Each structure stands twice: as structure tokens, then as C-alpha cells.
């Protein structure tokens, strides 16, 4: 039966005298899709696609039914018709085959992107050096598992029994595929290997998936607030954040990310259910139970059990629990992670005496403490980093009960020394061909402690570069933004020495800078700080056509904000400028105030008529990035920087020209309205337009763009106050290369939540290192 549909389709095409290209064009399907159906490579002809082909071939009723019957036989009983519950209809006039083929192509690109990303992460963690730790699991308690009839998706009255779900790390995909519901909960205590398991699951699943199967994507579910956003909308938002190209419109109307989620082409791998904020575990579990999406969920056992006790188990989900490592596992793994001893038995390593003590004296306090600690992959990895990867360190120190009287003290010791070990000076070269950057371990601990403290304050594991200033008080953020903009625009105003004397321009700069800082500071407060949010990175390019209703709405909002800022700044600047001119020309106070009022009206009108359209232009010219954009924290930073530069190139000349020509056009009407005589020239218009365009664009970029806020806080304020080093990007990338941080899409995360918690708690103790410093190259 497997070749019946392919042979029949080829025969009907030949009878119609069509080439593959001709039939594909008439049916509105891709040539690659048609070729796959005829060769048998595509085993999933949808009913809609078959109907389009039948129409294009001009088949009669009998031949049409024959072709449809062959398609149904080929796809089998598990194939899903187009009228399934999660089917998304394309927009009117858009062939369904084109819609689904487009989503299939996008899903393929997403699969390649996530596989490449997590393959790098697995290599970064040295998971395969010398071999992956033996992560195993067993059946979770029955009270944490749904009824097996529901897990098996059996009809009423069907016989059922439990599934055998035990296995090892390399069997996780096979175990998951044995679950008919496609819903699995993985429970494990901190450091037990949940993240290693989800990474291996994603890589093995992508490797074995068919084109029509969903793409596994890892989501850090701890950042989800189920009371504020639905599960599907949250998945869409996270996809768009980590893969900006998926914000592009889909053929079906919504974004590509939304279409992938709604059509079931994304398999959510939800890591960290236990990290959801207190009080939200129950609504989160209820929200997950309201969907039928297949998923894999990880959690600590206690948090998941508490949520189950408050509501119910995850519907139709089986549950497994990760097992502890054994002494046999340690005996196999640890000796292979360190060099052989010099002289004597070549098979002997520094771990042999420790392992012998654990076997021969299991009830001794030192052995019991160490055996308790080394039951999780996290602590074994830390012990390997501190003692196997560091020359001259003797792991026998771990048995010293005078130094470590409890397992907790041992864990703190390993966490503390991991940072010192990761940042020891290395003579070898880094992956980029150059030497590793030398960083003082104490300074690194302080800077990492601040980052951990920052994430704890924000209650998130995601280190987003555009939110590095969000951990500060809102008033501090506003004042720092206003101060930086004030200094920047004040310096820009010195360009006016090309037109006016230096003394006058210095006085004008002392006026313009603080005034611009105040205006932009107020705008920042109402648009960003008051909402206690951060400016998200702009994943847009410049495009005039293809605007949406949302874009036009954003254009109107920007126009109103720009007009309001223009009239406030224009009148304030004009009034104070006029008074300054009057005082410098030794006019009386009433005359100086009159000049100030006239100048205020004039400049207020000019800047209002210029700022509104210029601000609206920014929203008008935005469009999503291409789907093939490479995304990681650094590339997203560079992309946003390019977007800000593009906006600057467009906005600065537009605003400057509007100001210059607007001033020339308004000089006579305003003079007649106010009954005053304004002294104006072409040079005055050029000066005002040039300085206004340059200063306004810089102020907007620093105040209301993600890259500008990154520059203000991560590149200026936080290094200036000693919280971070000056080369922040180099430090973060170096921490990633050393295995302290990991990358999860467009954000960094600490290697493990336990490490983040430890650094956040010890951050105040590292205060003596809080002095600005540089990374030594």
C-alpha cells in the first residue's frame, strides 16, 4: 500500500500530459512537495492537498475518489484530517497546501536552529567528556501519575495497565514515544540531571523526527505567569523572543510563531515547573490541564506534589523520577576525568583513595557526607571541575570532617571553588584562536554575584542584556537616563560653535542639555520606568510597505507622544533661550520675559510639527527580521544596534529637515500672530535643524531603545559603580565559554539554579571587590 498513492499520482499526471512543475503551479503546492509525494519520500499527503491536486488534474468523480482512497490508505489510521481541532485555516484566497508547506519549512528551520543551539550547550558543559553521566529514572509514585487509561488514550471500557517507562539517558526519546498521550513529567531534586535530560531529549528527538512531527523547543517555564497570559500565547511570545524571525506574518494571518503553536508543530519541553513564582503553581497546572498539547515537564518532586495536592495531576501525563548516582557510577566516571598518576600503576588516579574510602568506610562521617553530596550530576560535575580539571588539587580533602562537618558545607565548598577554578589563569588558547581573558576570581565572583542578585530581584532565571538596568530602582533608572542624555545633548550642542561664538554656545549647551534630559527623563518615566518594565530589543528592519493595523496604531501613539514632547521642550527651550538672549543684550526683565514668551511659542510650534511626524515615522517603517536570522545574546545585541543605527540614519535627517524647513515656513505667520519681529536666517535654520536632528535622535535612542538602555546602564552606570566590568559583553561571553553561564536563545542563564542562588546569597560578602576593573587580556 505504501506506493499506491505515489504510483497513482504519477499515472494521473502523465495521463493529463503535465510536468511536475506545471501540476505544482496549477495546484498551488511546492514542486518539492509534489516530487516527495510521487517518490514516496512524503508519507503525509493531507486531504486538502489531495483535493487541490485532483482539481488541477481535472479528475472525474471516480478517479478523484480513487486518489483520495489511496491517500487515506497511505497515511494510515493515525493521520490527522484537515478538520482536526487544532487545524488553522489560511486566509481567504490562500491555498491550504501553501499554508501548511510554509509552516513545514519554517518548522524545519526551527528544528535546525534549536538543535545547533543545544548541541553547542551540551559541548560547552563537557557532557561527553569522557562520557555522559548515567542519568537513570524510575516510575514516579502513582499519586503523581494520571490514570493509565487516560495516558493510553483508551475509549471507555478499554483494558489497560501501566507502561514500563524505566530507562537511561540515551533511551529518553524511546520512552517518550511509548506514551500515547505524549505527556511526560520528569521529577528530580536539584542537580539530579533534569536539564541534561531535556537537552538530550531535544537533540535525539530532532534527529529522529519526521517532517510532519512537532519540533521540541525548551522553554524555561519559571518565567510564565498563568494569571496574566494564556499558555499558547506565552509559548508564542517566548518563541518570538528567542527566534525574532518567527514574528513575521504567517500565510494564515497570525505570526509564524503563533501558527506553529496553534497547529501543534511545537513540542513544548517545559523546564523548571518548580521555579514558577509562589502561588502560581496551581493555576499553571490548571492551565496546562486545559490544553491537550503533548509536552514534557520537569520539576522538583515536592513542588509538583504540592501543586497536585491543590488541584490535580497533569492530565493524561505519565511521571518518572530521576534516580541518584551510585558509588559504582562514581567509580566508573571520576577516575576517567583526571590524568593518570606519574610513576607506579598507570591506572591509579587521585580519586582512587577517595573511592576506596567510600567503599570500605561507608559509615564514616567523611564518607557519608561525600556520598550524600555526590549523588547528583551537578555536584559530581563541580567536584570534577575543582579537583580533576585543576592541577595540584587533592580530592582527599573532601573527606576532611574538620573542614566540612556536613553535606551542606561540602556543597558550599564546591560551589565556591567552582568559580575560582573556572577563572584560574590558563595558558592555553581559547576557542577563537586568541588567549583566554584573565579575570581575577574575586572580581569575577563579585560581578557574577551582582548578576545573580539582579536575577533574584527580578525573580527570573533569564539574564537579558536589555534588562540589566531593571534591577535598579525606578527613580534611579530615570535619573541616570536623564543625566546621560543631558550630557550627551549638551556636548552635541557644542557643534553650534560653527555658527555662534563659543561663550554663547556654552551657555546654550548648559541650557539645552539639562532641559533635554528632563524632557526625555519624563518620557522614560511614563513609557518605561512607571510600568516597571524594560524596553524590549527591536527585532525590526526598515520597510514602508506591508503595514498592519497594529503598526498604524503604534504610529498614532508615537505621533501623539512626539507632539507632546515637542511642544513641552520647544516652549521651555524657546522661553529660557529668549530670556538668555535678552539678558545677554542687557534688556530689561519685562522685555526679556516677552522675548522668552515669543521664542517659546515659535520653538514650541516648530518642534511640535517636527517631532510628531518624526516619531510616527519610526513606527511606520518597522517590519520583522528575516526568519534565517541567527540569534544568541550577542547577535541579538548587534542586530538591535543595527536597527537603532538605521532608525538614527532615517530619523535624524527627517527630524532635522522638518525643524529647519518648519522654522522657515512659520517665521512670518508667527511674527504676524505675535506682532514681533524675529531675526532669522538660513544659517539659523540649518543650525537648529542639524543640532535638533542629531540631539533628538541620540536622546530617543538612549531613552527608548533597548540598545540605548544597554549603553546607559551596562556600558556606563553599572561599570562606573563597580557592579559590572567595563567590557560587559566580553565578560558574559567569557563566562559562557568557561561554563559558568549557558545560553538559552537570546538570553544567558546560570549553569544551574543552585549556583545562581549561592552567588546571590554571597553577593553582599563580595563588596570589597566592588571597584571598577578591567579584564586583563
User: Which stretches are poorly predicted, pLDDT < 50 over at least 5 residues?
Assistant: 73-93, 427-436, 542-552, 768-777
* Average pLDDT level: 80
What would you call the shape? flat
Alpha-carbon distance between the two ends: 66 Å
Strand order of the largest sheet: 2-1-7-3-6-5-4
Whole-number total of structural domains: 4
Number of helices: 28
Please report which band the strand proportion falls in: under 5%, 5-15%, 15-25%, 25-35%, 35-45% or over 45%: 5-15%
Q: Tell me the radius of gyration.
A: 32 Å
The structural class is alpha/beta
Q: Give the biggest beta sheet.
A: 7 strands, mixed
Query: How helical, in percent, are the residues?
Result: 55-70%
Structure summary, number of beta strands: 11
Summed up:
The chain is α/β, with parallel strands linked by helices and 777 residues long. The chain is 55% helix and 6% strand. The protein folds into 4 domains: 4-84, lambda repressor-like DNA-binding domains (434 Repressor (Amino-terminal Domain)), CATH 1.10.260; 108-322, 3-Layer(aba) Sandwich (Rossmann fold), CATH 3.40.50; 327-422; 474-713, no CATH class.
How would you explain this protein's 3D organization?
There is one protein chain. The protein has 777 residues and is of the alpha/beta class. It has four domains: 81 residues, lambda repressor-like DNA-binding domains (434 Repressor (Amino-terminal Domain), Orthogonal Bundle); 215 residues, Rossmann fold, CATH 3.40.50; 96 residues; 240 residues, no CATH class. The protein contains 28 helices and eleven strands. The strands form three sheets. Strands 2-1-7-3-6-5-4 form a seven-stranded mixed beta sheet. A two-stranded antiparallel ribbon has the order 8-9. α20 packs across α26, α21 runs parallel beside α25 and α24 packs antiparallel against α25. It is flat and about 95 Å long. The protein starts with a helix and ends in a 15-residue tail after the last helix. The C terminus is likely disordered.
Amino acid at each position: 500500500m505504501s506506493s499506491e498513492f505515489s504510483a497513482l499520482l504519477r499515472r494521473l499526471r502523465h495521463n493529463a500530459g503535465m510536468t511536475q512543475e506545471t501540476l505544482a503551479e496549477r495546484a498551488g503546492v511546492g514542486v518539492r512537495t509534489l516530487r516527495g509525494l510521487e517518490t514516496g519520500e512524503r508519507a503525509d499527503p493531507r486531504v486538502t492537498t489531495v483535493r487541490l491536486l485532483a482539481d488541477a488534474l481535472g479528475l472525474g468523480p471516480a478517479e478523484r475518489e480513487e486518489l483520495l482512497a489511496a491517500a487515506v490508505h497511505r497515511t494510515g489510521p493515525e493521520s490527522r484530517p484537515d478538520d482536526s481541532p487544532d487545524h488553522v485555516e489560511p486566509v481567504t484566497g490562500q491555498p491550504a497546501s501553501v499554508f501548511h508547506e510554509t509552516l513545514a519549512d519554517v518548522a524545519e528551520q526551527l528544528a535546525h536552529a534549536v538543535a545547533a543551539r543545544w548541541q553547542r550547550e551540551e559541548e560547552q558543559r563537557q557532557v561527553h567528556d569522557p562520557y555522559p553521566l548515567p542519568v537513570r529514572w524510575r516510575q514516579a509514585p502513582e499519586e503523581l501519575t494520571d490514570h493509565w487509561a487516560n495516558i493510553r488514550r483508551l475509549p471507555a471500557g478499554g483494558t489497560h495497565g501501566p507502561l514500563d517507562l524505566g530507562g537511561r539517558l540515551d533511551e529518553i526519546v524511546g520512552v517518550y514515544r511509548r506514551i500515547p498521550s505524549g505527556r511526560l513529567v520528569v521529577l528530580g531534586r536539584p542537580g539530579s540531571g533534569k536539564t541534561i535530560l531535556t537537552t538530550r531529549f531535544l537533540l535525539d528527538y530532532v534527529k529522529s523526527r519526521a517532517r510532519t512531527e512537532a519540533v521540541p523547543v525548551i522553554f524555561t517555564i519559571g518565567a510564565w505567569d498563568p494569571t496574566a497570559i494564556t499558555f499558547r500565547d506565552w509559548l508564542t511570545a517566548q518563541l518570538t523572543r528567542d527566534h525574532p524571525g518567527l514574528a513575521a506574518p504567517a500565510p494564515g494571518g497570525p505570526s509564524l510563531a503563533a501558527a506553529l503553536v496553534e497547529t501543534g508543530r511545537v513540542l513544548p519541553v517545559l523546564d523548571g515547573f518548580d521555579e514558577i513564582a509562589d502561588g502560581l503553581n496551581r493555576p499553571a497546572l490548571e492551565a496546562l490541564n486545559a490544553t491537550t498539547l503533548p509536552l514534557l515537564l520537569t520539576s522538583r518532586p515536592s513542588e509538583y506534589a504540592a501543586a497536585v495536592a491543590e488541584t490535580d495531576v497533569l492530565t493524561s501525563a505519565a511521571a518518572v523520577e530521576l534516580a541518584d548516582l551510585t558509588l559504582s557510577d562514581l567509580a566508573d566516571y571520576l577516575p576517567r576525568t583526571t590524568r593518570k598518576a606519574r610513576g607506579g600503576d598507570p591506572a591509579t588516579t587521585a580519586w582512587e583513595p577517595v573511592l576506596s574510602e567510600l567503599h570500605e568506610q561507608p559509615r564514616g562521617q567523611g564518607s557519608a557526607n561525600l556520598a550524600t553530596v555526590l549523588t547528583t550530576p551537578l555536584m559530581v560535575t563541580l567536584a570534577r571541575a575543582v579537583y580533576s580539571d585543576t592541577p595540584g588539587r587533592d580530592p582527599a580533602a573532601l573527606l576532611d570532617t574538620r573542614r566540612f562537618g556536613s553535606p551542606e558545607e561540602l556543597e558550599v565548598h564546591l560551589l565556591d571553588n567552582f568559580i575560582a577554578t573556572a577563572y584560574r589563569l590558563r595558558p592555553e588558547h581559547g576557542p577563537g584562536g586568541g588567549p583566554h581573558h584573565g579575570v581575577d576570581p574575586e572580581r569575577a565572583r563579585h560581578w557574577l554575584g551582582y548578576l545573580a542578585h539582579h536575577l533574584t530581584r527580578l525573580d527570573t532565571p533569564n539574564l537579558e542584556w536589555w534588562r540589566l538596568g531593571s534591577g535598579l530602582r525606578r527613580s534611579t533608572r530615570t535619573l541616570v537616563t536623564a543625566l546621560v542624555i543631558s550630557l550627551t545633548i549638551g556636548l552635541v550642542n557644542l557643534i553650534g560653535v560653527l555658527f555662534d561664538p563659543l561663550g554663547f554656545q556654552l551657555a546654550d549647551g548648559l541650557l539645552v542639555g539639562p532641559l533635554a534630559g528632563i524632557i526625555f527623563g519624563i518620557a522614560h518615566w511614563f513609557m518605561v520606568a512607571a510600568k516597571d518594565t524594560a524596553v524590549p530589543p527591536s527585532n525590526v528592519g526598515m520597510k514602508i510597505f506591508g503595514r498592519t493595523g497594529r503598526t498604524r496604531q503604534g504610529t498614532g501613539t508615537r505621533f501623539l507622544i512626539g507632539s507632546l514632547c515637542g511642544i513641552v521642550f520647544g516652549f521651555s527651550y524657546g522661553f529660557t533661550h529668549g530670556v538668555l538672549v535678552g539678558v545677554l543684550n542687557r534688556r530689561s526683565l519685562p522685555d526679556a520675559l516677552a522675548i522668552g514668551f515669543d521664542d517659546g511659542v515659535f520653538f514650541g510650534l516648530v518642534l511640535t510639527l517636527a517631532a510628531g511626524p518624526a516619531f510616527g515615522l519610526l513606527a511606520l517603517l518597522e517590519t520583522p527580521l528575516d526568519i534565517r536570522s541567527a540569534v544568541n545574546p550577542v547577535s541579538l545585541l548587534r542586530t538591535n544596534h543595527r536597527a537603532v543605527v538605521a532608525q538614527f540614519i532615517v530619523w535624524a535627517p527627517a527630524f532635522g529637515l522638518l525643524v529647519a524647513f518648519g522654522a522657515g515656513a512659520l517665521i512670518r505667520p508667527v511674527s504676524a500672530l505675535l506682532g514681533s519681529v524675529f531675526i532669522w536666517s538660513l544659517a539659523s535654520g540649518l543650525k537648529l535643524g542639524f543640532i535638533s536632528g542629531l540631539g533628538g535622535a541620540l536622546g530617543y535612542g538612549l531613552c527608548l531603545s533597548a540598545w540605548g538602555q544597554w549603553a546607559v546602564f551596562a556600558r556606563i552606570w553599572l561599570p562606573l559603580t563597580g557592579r559590572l566590568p567595563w567590557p560587559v559583553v566580553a565578560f558574559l561571553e567569557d563566562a559562557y565559554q568557561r561554563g559558568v553561564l549557558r545560553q538559552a536563545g537570546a538570553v544567558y542563564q546560570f549553569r544551574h539554579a543552585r549556583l545562581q542562588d549561592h552567588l546571590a546569597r554571597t553577593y553582599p560578602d563580595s563588596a570589597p571587590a566592588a571597584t571598577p576593573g578591567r579584564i586583563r587580556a
